[in-house]
Amino acid sequence: MPLPVVAIIGRPNVGKSAIVNRLAKVQEAIVYDQPGVTRDRTYKPAFWSDRDFMIVDTGGLVFDDETEFLPLIREQAMMALSEACAAIFVVDGQEGLTEADRVLSDWLHRQHVPVVLAVNKCESLTQGYSQVSEFYELGWDTHAVSGIHGNGLAEALDDVLSHFPEKDEEVEEEEIRVAIIGRPNVGKSSLLNAIAGENRSIVSPISGTTRDAIDLKVERNGIKYRLVDTAGIRKKKYVQYGPEFFGINRAFKAIDRADVVLLVIDAVEGVTDQDQKLAGRILEEGRACIVVMNKWDAIEEKDTYTMLEHMKQVKARLHFTEWADVVFTSAVSGQRVEKIFDMIAPAAEQHRRRVSTSVINEILEDAVSWHTPPTMKGGKQGRIYYGTQVSSRPPSIALFVNSPDRFGDTYRRYIERKIRESLGFQGTPIRIFWRGKKTRELDRGANKAIKVKS
């Protein structure tokens, strides 16, 4: 059974995201003194008493305004309520009861979802009692709370837990974390919605629609995935401090936490300089990667060779991630969207893969026999003693040599190519560390260096 879901509901700027951060014990939801920062519904795991559950943060609800994203925010909030077993209705205790709170309360009374009222921004216990009193007329179980300090949240959560179903002891299986990364308006949110089969993220031609990182859990062929849609990442010089700045930071954190990153690129525009920088960031973080060329349906006059020509261009522009698979999709029509999962699972497996020391040394022996290490001026030649995998995620191999300075970039690329030819590691970067001879143990083992076959 899935975990119980608790929806956080309220009008804009009452502190919903601050409460989400406090309950989830993370600083992930963007908190900024500006209405409308949160737009999509975002899921965070939480724990209270003896229960695990999911918190859903939603955008601020306004019913008398149809501008920009507000109708779509209401749609996302209704979806959150439809799957919730309880809701926390957040109001601003410092501002007091407003007409917008009354309208929202009447709407919640018609939703048939148990509601606990949290009067937020009651940092002082003494003032909290007076701040809460005027909200009793709304007819909910009411608590004075502080999202900043955590005051009163324990009592509110006790009320929320009373509406949970019976505890399920099922243990969650390990899931593959997938981050969806790209420039603004390349179709990241549309791709997430195509995978989910619902409007999980708000899609708009307006740049910067997605701000927070949006989680979606799906299952394919018995494998569980957690996909994270992120804010579009523009060039740093165009980004101002505010919601977009925080959204981009969340995107970078999503890359760091992911097993596999989907780098979404606009197929019509091709690989841009910013796409190259994002691919470089993924490589730097050591994440597995799949390049998703989206909006393939918008390419006109395609023939048998069109995809091959685009593939060559992608490989040329992203030559430093040639190990990454490339798929041409259309989030609008759903073309090849499911094929992405055929690539994610193997890439995650290779990202976590471990190889025995004996296999690595067989590969090194073969590589050295075909191409001996370079000889420096003065007749000093590089020697590889042995190699061993030291970590995974990404696979990292340490090569112990007499002197790293005797191995130039050309020979180092040759060794990496031979390792990939033998072991694959498709979809994931690998790291190779060249370690010099520093201990007596290595000195004694020098005669065991990999010998060159004549």
Structural class: alpha/beta
Poorly predicted sequence stretches spanning 5 or more consecutive residues? 28-40, 200-212, 439-449
SSE string, helices as H and strands as E: EHEEHEHEHEHEHEEHEHEHEHHEEHEH
Average pLDDT rating: 81
Broad CATH class of the largest domain: Alpha Beta
Major sheet: size, sense and barrel closure? 6 strands, mixed
| Number of alpha- plus pi-helical segments | 13
Large-scale geometry? elongated
Q: Helical amount among residues, as a percent range?
A: 25-40%
Widest sheet: strand ordering: 2-3-1-4-5-6
GO molecular function: GTP binding; ribosome binding
InterPro entries: AAA+_ATPase, G_ENGA, GTP-bd, GTPase_Der, KH_dom-like, KH_dom-like_a/b, P-loop_NTPase, Small_GTP-bd
Keywords: GTP-binding, Nucleotide-binding, Repeat, Ribosome biogenesis
Binding site for GTP 1: 10-17, 57-61, 120-123
Report on the structure:
One of its GO terms (biological process) is ribosome biogenesis. GTP 2 binds at residues 182-189, 229-233, 294-297. The protein is α/β, with parallel strands linked by helices. It folds into three domains: 5-161, P-loop containing nucleotide triphosphate hydrolases (Rossmann fold, 3-Layer(aba) Sandwich); 176-351, Rossmann fold; 357-448, K homology (KH) domain (GMP Synthetase, Chain A, domain 3, 2-Layer Sandwich), CATH 3.30.300.20. The protein contains 13 helices and 15 strands. The chain has helices at residues 16-24, 70-83, 99-109, 125-133, 153-161, 188-196, 243-257, 273-285, 306-317, 339-351, 357-370, 409-423, 440-444; strands spanning 5-10, 42-48, 51-57, 86-92, 115-120, 141-144, 176-182, 214-220, 223-229, 260-266, 288-294, 325-328, 384-391, 396-401, 431-435. A six-stranded mixed beta sheet has the order 2-3-1-4-5-6, sandwiched between helices. Strands 8-9-7-10-11-12 form a six-stranded mixed beta sheet, with helices on both faces. Helix 11 (357-370) crosses helix 12. The longest helix has 15 residues, at 243-257. The model is unreliable at 28-40, 200-212 and 439-449 (pLDDT under 50).
